[in-house]
Amino acid sequence: MHLQKKYDPDLGFTTVKGMSRAEAAKASAGVKLVKSDDERAADFARFLIAQALGKGNLALAHSIGESRYAANSNVVSALRSAVAAGTTTGESWAEPLSDYRNLASEFIEWLRPQTILGRFGKNGIPSLRQVPFNVKIPRQLSGGKASFVAEGHAKPVTKFDFGTITLGHAKIATIAVITEELARFSAPSAEALIRDQLAAALIEEMDRSFIDPLRAAVANISPASVTYGVDPVESSGTDADAVRQDVKAVLSRYIAANVTPSSAVWVMPTLTALSLSLMTNGLGQAEFPNISMGGGMLAGLPVITSDFLAAGNVALINTKDILLADDGVVNVDSSNTASLQMDDDPDHNSVEPVGTALVSMFQTNSIAVRAERFVNWAKRRESAAQLITGVEWGDSSSLLS
């Protein structure tokens, strides 16, 4: 082992043990250690902690990053990029930005599979229709019609009703607060806490906004959920025959609208999927062998499970009829000088705090970490999503007792 300098905000620079010669040799030879997904996502939290402890001093943040994460070149490189200024004439002007983007991308890729939106297009599940922000997209409002005609007779002229839709920039944001003591003296715990807090808040808001039938659109703020305003199918019962009848009823809605649901995906609560997987016939054989609490297949269509779809609801979404605008980036900032309204459900239509006192991050030795993501969606046609309500397949409520 060799000695290296380590920076501590209270003690200054101290001498500590660094990498072994073997580790240093591997590093210099370009041998990279394979990190788990959790570790890769934690790099972004480490970057934020170093910046927060630097209190606006980028050079100090870089020194802190070097001392705390000497073996983590991604974090140190990103912090070094934050210190150096870019020039319009430099050949690698934008190159320093790539380190930060890589860290943010790793966090997003870790976050995606935990959301409903992030599971579309993965593991055999069809993708939603990707579109850019602020571009007019044609929207079909009605179908055409064709017919047989006799020889020499006039052919009918079909009619299509079209409209346009534009997906503007809609922003999902959250703020996590930790103490400076936690960030300073409990590095591994702080990294996991920041990563998990940001992820949990973003996951819940994204999933509820996308799938909750009660989520209406708020002008210039948030889109309606894909199930909002859908005339639901009422579940017919709890046994396997009732499940099949409900599936037939909801698929018939698509067929009646001249839509082939070949790219449809089920979204259901985790408990409902678990109940289906446990249903057996008189011989003890599984009624629905291709489904589990983690997803699977039902009636030949993929299943996504979520903890944020209300119990008793099951949605069926035709993915090719859902437009999604997503820049794929999370923007994160940190501050220890802001004053926050410590409210997890503030008035989104007001810029002034209502009913909750402001708390100073500086006065309480706290660090606020803010995450924002731009994402928007809309249905290309009204029949894009269907909903079954009153679902008690397999009497899933009994599993909670």
Largest sheet: 7 strands, mixed
Strand order, main sheet: write it out: 7-17-12-8-11-10-9
What structural class results from the helix and strand content?
alpha+beta
Q: Uncertain regions: pLDDT < 50 for 5+ in a row?
A: 1-19, 23-34, 84-97
The helicity comes to 25-40%
Mean pLDDT score, rounded?
A: 77
Succession of helices and strands = EEHHHHHHEEEEHHEHEHEEEEEEEEE
Strand content: 15-25%
Shape: elongated
Number of strand segments: 17
State the end-to-end CA separation: 57 Å
What's the number of helices? 10
Report Rg.
26 Å
Structural account:
Helix content is 31%, strand content 24%. By secondary structure, the chain is α+β, with helices and mostly antiparallel strands. Strands 7-17-12-8-11-10-9 form a seven-stranded mixed β-sheet, with helices on one face. Strand 1 (3-8) and strand 2 form a beta hairpin. Helix 2 (37-54) crosses helix 3 (58-68) and helix 2 (37-54) packs across helix 8 (187-211).
What order do the helices and strands come in, and which of them pair?
Blueprint (H helix, E strand, L loop, with lengths): L2 E6 L3 E6 L3 H8 L8 H18 L3 H11 L4 H11 L13 H15 L4 H4 L9 E2 L5 E5 L21 E5 L4 E9 H6 L1 H25 L21 E2 L5 H17 L7 E6 H9 L12 E2 L2 E4 L2 E6 L7 E5 L3 E14 L3 E3 L16 E3 L5 E14 L5 E5 L12
Helix pairs in contact: 2-3, 2-4, 2-5, 2-8, 3-4, 4-5
What are the key terms here?
401 residues; elongated; seven-stranded mixed β-sheet
Give a quick precis of the structure.
The protein has helices at 21-28, 37-54, 58-68, 73-83, 97-111, 116-119, 180-185, 187-211, 240-256, 270-278, and strands at 3-8, 12-17, 129-130, 136-140, 162-166, 171-179, 233-234, 264-269, 291-292, 295-298, 301-306, 314-318, 322-335, 339-341, 358-360, 366-379, 385-389. With 401 residues, it is an alpha+beta fold. The strands form 5 sheets. A 7-stranded mixed sheet has the order 7-17-12-8-11-10-9, with helices on one face. The chain has a 4-stranded mixed sheet with strand order 3-13-16-6.
